[in-house]
Input
Amino acid sequence: MSFRSTLILVRFLLTFINRRVFGRGILRSKTAKTAAIAIALTAFVGYGLLTVVVVRQYFDAEIVEILLLSGGAATPFWVLIAYTIVRVLFLKADQLTQLTFMLPATNRERTLAFAIFEALMVVGASLITFGAFIIAAATISGFSIIWRAVAAIFFPTILCYLLFSIVYLGVERLVITIGAGRLRGLIIPFLFAAALVGMFTLANSQSQEMLQGYLSGQPYFIPQLGFLKIADSAGPALAVLVFLILLLALGTLVLVAAPKDYEPVKQHYRVLSGKLASSQLGLHLLALVRSFETLIVLLFATLATAGIAILKIEIPPYVLLFVTFQGVYAFANSEPIRRATPAVQGAVASYLNLVTAQAIVLLVVAVPAVAVSTWLGIGIQHSALAIGFSACNILLSTLVGILFPADNGNPFSVVVGVVLVFAIVAMVAMGLNIFSLPVAINVAVVVLLSVAVVAYSIVGINRIERIRRYEIVA
Output
C-alpha cells in the first residue's frame, strides 16, 4: 500500500470539491461564497453566545461535569448516527468513486482516502455539537475542562468511528463474498439502523449508571470514559499514549478489513407498479421511491417507530423527519425524467411534482407513526405539529437539492447545502426566540419564509433548465 497514492486521491477529492461544489451554481460567485461563510460563522457565534448565557445562568461546575460525562457516555450512540448518515451519503457517491478508477490506486488506498473525508465530517460535526458547550463550560470550570472534553468526548469519537468502520468494511467484505455486494446499499444501513435501537438502550443505561455512581461516589466503569479515568489516575500523558496506540491498531485493522476490489452499489430497486409512469407525478413518485436512499430512510423510520413502540418512548412522531431528508436528491434523481420528456415542462409543474411525490411518501409513513404516538398517549396536536415540521423540511431539503444539486451522487454538495440552510434556519429560530413574538406572528413568519423557499426553488429550476437547453449562459 502506498500513502502517496492515498494523498493523490485526497488531492483529487479536494479538487472535485472546489470545482463541483464551490465552483458551480450559487457558490460560483465570490460574493456568494463570502456571504455563505458569513452566515455559517454568524449562526455558530450566535449559537455559542446563547449557549454561554444559558450555561452560566443555570449551571454550576458540578452540573457541567455531569453533562460532560453524560455526553461521553452517549458517544457511541450519536457517533453511530453520524457514521450511518455519512456512509449513506458516500454509498450514493458511486459514480464519484468510479471517477477515481483512472488514478494509480488500489481499493484499500481509495478506502483510506474516503475514510479521511468521512472522519473529518464526523469530527467536524462533533466540534459543532459540543464546541459551544465546551467554551461555555470553560467560563465556569476553567480551561482544564477543555482537556477533559478531549478525553471524554473526542478521543472516544475517533475510536468509535474506526470501530464502526471496521464493522462496516467487514460486513461489506462478507456480503461481497456471498454475492450480494450490489445490495449492500440496503443491507448494511439496515443493520446499522437496527443497531441504533440497541445502542440507544445501552447509552441510556450507561448514562444512568454513570449518574448514580457519580452522585453516590461509588465506582463505575464505562469504556468510553476510560481515557478520562486514566488521565485522572495516571496523568494525561498516559491517556494520550493509550489513545495513539489504539488509533494505530484500529487504523491498521481498517486497512486490513477493506475489500480488495470495488463493486458498484445498486442505486434503484423495482418497487411499486410501473403503471404509475403514465403520468408525470407517477414518474416522479417512482423515481423517488425506487432510489435506494429513499428505501433506506423508510427503513430507518420504520425501525425507529418500532423501537419507540417497543421501548414505549413518549415522544411525538418526529421520526418523520427521516423521510424528508432524501429530498436533497429528489431534483438530481428526476433529471432523466426532464431530459426524456418530449415537451418542455414548466418549472412550476416540475416543482409541484417533486414536492407532491415526497408529500405522498410522508403521509403514508405518517399513518403508523402517528398511530404509535397516539397509542403512547401523545396528543394529536403534537403529531400534527411534527407533520407540519416535516412538510416544511420537504421544502427546505428540495431547495438544497436545487441550489446544490448532487450530480453523480456528489455527497459534498449535500453537506455544504444542508449546513448553510441549517445555519439560516437556526438564525431565524434564535431571532424568533429572542424577541418572544406572539405565536400568530411566528406562524406568519414561517409561512412567509416557506413561500420564499418555494419561489426561490421554482426560480432555481427554471434557471437550471434554461441553462441545460442553452437558452442562457451559466
About this structure: Residues 107-141 form the longest helix (35 residues).
